[in-house]
Sequence to fold (424 residues):
Amino acid sequence: MTTASETRNASGRSEGRPTGRSLAFLLAGEGIGFAGSSVHGVALPALAVLYLGAAPGQVALLAFAATVPALLVSLPAGVLLDRYPLRAVLVTTDLSAAAVVVMIPAAAVLGVLTMPLLYSIALVLGSLSVLHTAASMAAVPLLAGPGKIHQANAHFTAVLTTAGVAGSALGTMLVAMAGPARALLADVVTLVVSACCAIRVRALPGPDRARPAKRRMLDEIREGVLYSVRDDVLRPLFLILTATGIGSGLTTTLLAYHLLTTVRVGTTGLGLIMAAGSLGGLIGALIAPRLVRRYGSGSVLAVGFVVHALMQIPPLVAEPGRAWLAVLMFGSCGHFAAATCVGTTQRSVQQWSSPPHLRARVQQTALWLINGARPLAALAAGALASLTSVRTVMLAGVLVLLLSASTLWRSPVRLLAAKDEGNI
Fold:
């Protein structure tokens, strides 16, 4: 329930409530919750392989079940965020996910854990994650101070990047020490803590009471999609993001397999490459606002997309050896730095370009196009690799990324300056 003091003003902000503490609680909760999600990202496939003896195809299906909600849930999520208080969505999704995760160790203790049950749990957790992430991303611009939306987005991305690294390391350690089923209890704890942090987020407005009565969900989804299609900035940007999702799916699906089997970096080398990527992601998130202020959003996006594509080339030409491992680490760092720099900048452009009553639906349209393309591209990558080779699939992905980057240079997005956020 919301009170009159929680309703939105014309800019979409809540009246008379300090946002600094609420933003801090939001970031803390999201970091803790994302670290826990990274634990189950390690534990679920380990559980499938070590406890249930899953075959490679079953592990791939488990990964697909966890990612396909991005295609199915993203667009409806935008409508739900307009209908229900964001804080309630954050708390409910965290507690629901905790209840779902605790079913896994319980099923293991009872001896009833099966792959179909894991598929179902992965699907539900993926759906809750899509809705929760949508709510947290929609909350950031509402809690950011005037002129600080891009900075708040950058801090949000930096927190998630750091939490992902810490969570993966924690998950690996807990799986080794306690087993994959018990390791998931850490995820339950982090989800509950995240929900407690969300409860402390006081400055979020409630649903807009001035908006028309509820319409059919499909009509509201269509409104957000049509706005994105008709806007001169969002239309080319979203087209490029879709192509980037496809290209990234082709280049990354079989990357670990290629590095381990062809380049022979070993598990330690693969860990170093991933660590370098995490460092690059953190750097990219932190420097993006400064680059935008100096060069403008369009220039940052244009250069960022090109760098993101070029940094996918080293794995294509790499050979076994320490020198190539150093090159791969540098490429991974540059790849993720460009990706997070582009990610925070394009998200801020979306928020600047969208009216408050459509912002959540426009955001989810973008996520649907980007993240929804990836599982489909992953399936295509597997099929193409069986017909050609892993390097050919990765080369096709690089070409798609370069084509999308060149398209941006010829679009109106390229001309965007640093946006004045004061009146968003």
Remarks:
- Confidence is low (pLDDT under 50) at residues 1-16, 420-424.
- The radius of gyration is 21 Å.
- The chain is about 80% helix and 0% strand.
- The first helix runs from residue 20 to 51.
